[in-house]
């Protein structure tokens, strides 16, 4: 509703006042004219998305695991940034994975697996479910929504898909979102009394959570037991992404290539940033321009950390000066239109060459990363990567006389003093989320065994803060991390980000070449 000139301020509800600046005419003549004389919306066939050859296997896995149950996977709603301004929409990663949708598709959409046994399922369905994507299709140009709805209307935000478009592109049955509530609530109840058990990917969309809770309460279902069912679905969706298919690996290769181009842009921008009071912002901006140019967005906020800021693990304020002679730790990733992201770090001498102590620290971190790469192959445990990297760091710290105890004592579980200078993990899975598969069981993650197709980071670092009185002064204010993205292959691994120089000498000549 728009504001009404006859309503006094006292009687107008607060939530209606958001439209007080609207000056849209309300006359019938205006409405009639707005609804007429628009060219018809372009129809036609939409070619099938490549990903549609890969998503049926993912949906089949969900169907197999939860046969006989209604499975509900929301994309999530638009999120308010301030007042009536939303963040750019980004769907939940489980929804993106199971539908194949990327970019800003599609606020409020929900993927529903309805139990139905099929001897020979059609291309749209699975052995145990009928699968339907519910979303709000674009309204016609003869509707008020077209010009009056600033969140959905084509006049405001541009064309959006209609039901036929997603059906053709994704190979999934589509229905209008206005049919979702009835489909969700139908016959909800304990299986033992002939009802349909629902499992929900919780916390993706609080409105859907409330609908499910209401349906369960009306069926007198135990809410705590239902929460446990939901948690199993969340866990399964996370674990389903531990091994990437070929399409996902191609997406990650694309994200890595765009990220490398972004790092090159930053090196070219460095002469402008060095000596600038907000030099870190120049770096952040240069990378962001590449992320928007080649991808959908950043996969996470860029860490553009100069000098001592490099010792702050998630420094994203990026508002500081860059001074000559400092190191710049740049941790950044381009998220592709498919929403797969890279996650790469390089630590760069801003004046073109490392000082002796910077190089000493850099080469220790590189040795730790190289040692970790050496052990990666199918069959080893994920946690062995970290153990390998930190052992090498501990050895260097011992050589430099920084450990307060013997190397053996530090490496024992009761010691671990070396971790003062690297309190984070060495690796995390990478994919649709920068920290992908985060809800997977410990047995499959930290204690999991590597398989071909897994993608994760190797990212050791050393961080000596200005305030660190446990190290000699020459080390203080130096933070180094080297982070690469790794694909497990049949007999070892591939460094997906190998095209970005890693050795100190190579980094220096790369800078010289790009700034020539
Ligand atoms: N960019 C955050 C991380 O490396 O995990
Ligand atoms: Mn990382
Ligand atoms: Mn990172």
TrEMBL record:
<dbReference type="InterPro" id="IPR052433">
    <property type="entry name" value="X-Pro_dipept-like"/>
</dbReference>
<protein>
    <recommendedName>
        <fullName>Xaa-Pro aminopeptidase</fullName>
        <ecNumber>3.4.11.9</ecNumber>
    </recommendedName>
</protein>
<dbReference type="InterPro" id="IPR001131">
    <property type="entry name" value="Peptidase_M24B_aminopep-P_CS"/>
</dbReference>
<dbReference type="GO" id="GO:0070006">
    <property type="term" value="F:metalloaminopeptidase activity"/>
</dbReference>
<keyword id="KW-0378">Hydrolase</keyword>
<dbReference type="Pfam" id="PF00557">
    <property type="entry name" value="Peptidase_M24"/>
</dbReference>
<feature type="domain" description="Aminopeptidase P N-terminal">
    <location>
        <begin position="49"/>
        <end position="209"/>
    </location>
</feature>
<dbReference type="InterPro" id="IPR000994">
    <property type="entry name" value="Pept_M24"/>
</dbReference>
<dbReference type="InterPro" id="IPR029149">
    <property type="entry name" value="Creatin/AminoP/Spt16_N"/>
</dbReference>
<dbReference type="GO" id="GO:0005829">
    <property type="term" value="C:cytosol"/>
</dbReference>
<dbReference type="InterPro" id="IPR036005">
    <property type="entry name" value="Creatinase/aminopeptidase-like"/>
</dbReference>
<feature type="region of interest" description="Disordered">
    <location>
        <begin position="1"/>
        <end position="27"/>
    </location>
</feature>
<comment type="similarity">
    <text>Belongs to the peptidase M24B family.</text>
</comment>
<dbReference type="GO" id="GO:0030145">
    <property type="term" value="F:manganese ion binding"/>
</dbReference>
<dbReference type="Pfam" id="PF05195">
    <property type="entry name" value="AMP_N"/>
</dbReference>
<keyword id="KW-0464">Manganese</keyword>
<feature type="compositionally biased region" description="Polar residues">
    <location>
        <begin position="1"/>
        <end position="26"/>
    </location>
</feature>
<dbReference type="GO" id="GO:0006508">
    <property type="term" value="P:proteolysis"/>
</dbReference>
<keyword id="KW-0479">Metal-binding</keyword>
<dbReference type="InterPro" id="IPR007865">
    <property type="entry name" value="Aminopep_P_N"/>
</dbReference>
